Amino acid sequence: MKLLIVDDEQIERDGLQAILEKNFSNLEIKQAKNGRVAIEMAATFQPDLVFMDIQMPGMTGFEAVEKINADNPYVKFIMITAYATFDYAHLAMRLGVVDYLVKPSRVDEIVETVEKVLGQIETEQKSFEHNKQQQVALQKAMSLFETDVVTQLLFDHVHEVHLDELVELLGMEAAKEKFVMSVLLPLGSEYSYTAIREKVRESGSGWVGALYGRQLPIIVFRSSDQSFRQQATQLAREILTLAKSDDGAGWFIGIGNIYQSLEQIRQSYQESLIATKDTMLPVKYRFYSDLPVLVPGFDEQTTKQHEEQFFEYIRGGQWEDIFSYISDMVDRYEQEGTNLLHAQQRVMELLWLTSRVLSEMGVESDAPFYSFQATDFRQIRAETNHLLERMQDAYDKHHANLEVDIIQKVKQYIIENAHKDISLDAIGREVGLSPIYISKLFKEQLGINYIHFLTECRIEKAKKLMRDPEKSMKEITFEVGYHDPNYFSKVFKKMCHISPTAYRKNLLA
């Protein structure tokens, strides 16, 4: 503990220091001869406790306390004076002085006062360190929340019990405009993930999702200080500065349109992915709004609906619909007399999107490329069907390799680790599956998402712990895996339709 003695009389300072050194072995003590010197020393010495004489020439002790306190709000002060008056005591209380000694003070009185104040300081320091550890744990949990919220928002695996609380915990206004950027990274560039997350966090502009293969989705919140294109372009350029190679080879960023609600954010994600279809452009980012329509012969709204439907076919493994969709597109091109090379390129873009969405789900297949330039539409149909069959084969093999009891394995892992900060990524690594696919399986087979199941496990454990009257609600919160008692209380009430305090009262009645 660091202690500063401030008094204009040398003999008083030395006498007090001798008493303190004799009775306390854990003090580092320094002296200041007046208030101005004390202010200067406090800035560098950073004392925990200050003995401050009130009556000193040039600057009173109260004036010095006020100035020191402005820069060091955690410092404790014990005032010393030869005059014990009500006005002094009142002013001392207003300044937050913790105690008051009248000259001359007895040795036992000084020792008792210092022991009491040092005890307060030690208790506060322990509490501060505990809170600091909790903040570190909360920040770690927030990172997991962030990636999981992004995954669930973009892939429609959200459950209303949790979305509001998670959004509130992450500090975002739900009404704010938002859009999605999809960052494509070169293979083996996983090291860039942390750097990109830090870059986005520094800008305070969005949430970063999990890295799926080469793809990294970012939900970006609109800034009122810039236009949409200015904001998106600036963030894209900042992210591209992280590319290790001079030309940014393998890096590309697609930028979706702005939407108001969280429910619409999936559309912006799909648009951002479509915008990455041509990565050979000299500029390594592209806005979806700058692309020609993907489906010919439709207005913009109808085109968006068709694009969204095509994504759903792929994610649902509806191969008959995928074949039919692309076949109809080729027929339309042929009927309209579209240039053959242009038609082949457009169909190639759809095949590329199919491959990219399959990759999200953990299905690895060869990149689809035409081995020749078609001379008629019959060749486009034949080669397109061949490439689609290869992708379907990869999809079928992926599902065939999945064990029947995979959901049971995932459930068991969650049950055993519910008290920890677990995420879709962690579960995916445990069972060897894509986080998106795990979330999809939960939604399809159980009708809930994994966070709902995780919450049920935690709430059930909390109910058991509440039977022990010795455990505080705060202890229970941390023991079941939450870092914020208020958040735990909200989730408990939403799940059980009663507050945890009321539930416990009924339980122990």
UniProtKB/TrEMBL annotation:
Biological process GO terms, please? phosphorelay signal transduction system
What Pfam families does this protein map onto? Answer: GGDEF_2, HTH_18, Response_reg
Q: Extract the InterPro entries matched here.
A: CdaR_GGDEF, CheY-like_superfamily, Homeodomain-like_sf, HTH_AraC, Sig_transdc_resp-reg_receiver
> Which intervals hold domain Response regulatory?
2-118
Example GO molecular function: sequence-specific DNA binding
**Superkingdom assignment:** Bacteria
HTH araC/xylS-type domain boundaries: 408-506
Modification 4-aspartylphosphate occurs at: 53
CDD domains registered for this protein in UniProt: REC_YesN-like
Q: List keywords of the entry alphabetically.
A: DNA-binding, Phosphoprotein, Transcription, Transcription regulation
Specify the protein name: Two-component system, response regulator YesN
Name its species: Oceanobacillus limi
